[in-house]
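Box 4.2: Ligand-aware structure prediction
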Amino acid sequence: MDRIRIVGGNPLNGVIPISGAKNAALPLMIASLLTDRTVTLENLPRLADVSLLVRILSNHGVDYSIDGRRQGEDPDSGQTVHMTAREIVDTTAPYDLVSRMRASFWVLAPLLARIGEARVSLPGGCAIGTRPVDLLLMAMERLGASIDIDAGYVVAKAPKGLRGAEIVFPKVTVGGTHVALMAAALAEGTTVLHNAAREPEIGDLAELLVKMGARIRGAGSSVIEIDGVARLGGAKHRVLPDRIETGTYAMAAAMTGGDVLLQGACAEHLQAALDALVQAGAQVESTPDGVRVMRNGGPIRPVDIVTAPFPGFPTDLQAQFMALMTRAQGVSRITEKIFENRFMHVQELARFGAHIRLEGDSAIVEGVPVLKGAPVMATDLRASVSLVIAALAADGESMIQRVYHLDRGFEALERKLSRCGADVTRISSGG
Ligand code: EPZ
């Protein structure tokens, strides 16, 4: 298993190109199951989760091809892929694949909408909490599907097709909104989603679906209306920039006292996190090329945050912000409201000498003047990168184990950081 060695202390200075968003790429790829025509996605990030989803989709019958590199193109720029689900050959998504990536459960919706049946393994728990799928199943049932659970599989059927309906989500759910959008696009009649998620990735999926011929109004707001159509066609779409990657490097720049241009990033997609960074003492500028984040010399100030659905502070940046707060001059409170167990990074951050105490759904972080490099272990994707941020500012060497978690969601992490002056090396299992 690969490890990452970081010698801390260098400020990050330079340009970091922001990749296509993982959490947009996954539902966009899954949407290719809705049509027998080709869906072309540009700016698709090179990530382990994307490769795994390709395997899952090809099992259902999706052909996949990648464009080669073009003259003058940066080797780290996103890929252009073409996906065609001419025929669905298998409606089962097996346990050994779905259990490795939760979002693959979402194939349920397009399979059901296009073929009238799907058999998808329950995703099970994961390192950040129980994460049920009851609301996703409720949405499919509202659209007329019958749902049974058989030997760990969700068996969904709608032999006469799905019918439009009013769907009221009692809680904001990104996955629930994605599956409802995909299924309703091919349902007969009108569907209205109430309390829909407003994350930019929802808007990106809706944009692709509209290009494919879907009739959708209100994506990006909490009420979305969809008039179902009989068929969807092919389309070409560029994956939006990754707001979580943007926020992560923004926090790393603030942590190390650097000056970084996050190229291609869109500030509105993470305004709550950028506002918190400004309160913490960073300067943030939106430029035509992206977002510039600096902290020159001044102290890191303590800031309290509470995670919330978009446009609130994203849970996917909570661990990274906590890493920053470990060096603040004072005490901050970080409250996690989306997932009940998303504090796995606390004990690992403590290895650097951070002072953090848990109180229910909050972490109380008492800033320390110095962090010391340490051996640490990555637990989940975002928790792992919070350890990278701490290590970049810690005195001496840190060794991060189990970096496959990072590879799931951060494209070319070592290269992007090294180019900005960080001392980061990947040690592959053979090395
Ligand atoms: C998406 O997960 C993201 N994943 C997560 O990012 C992100 O943390 C999360 O949204 C919240 O922003 C992808 O986009 C691939 P939810 P999702 O349904 O859709 C509860 C990362 O690191 N809930 O919005 O699974 C749930 O338990 C990942 O990239 C139900 O109770 O999250 C949670 O408390 C981690 N029943 C809340 O809703 C359900 O049926 C929000 O979850 C579904 C969800």
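In the box above, the bound molecule is EPZ. Residues 23, 26, 102-103, 131-136, 171, 173-176, 315-316, 338-339, 381-382, 409 surround EPZ (CB under 6 Å).
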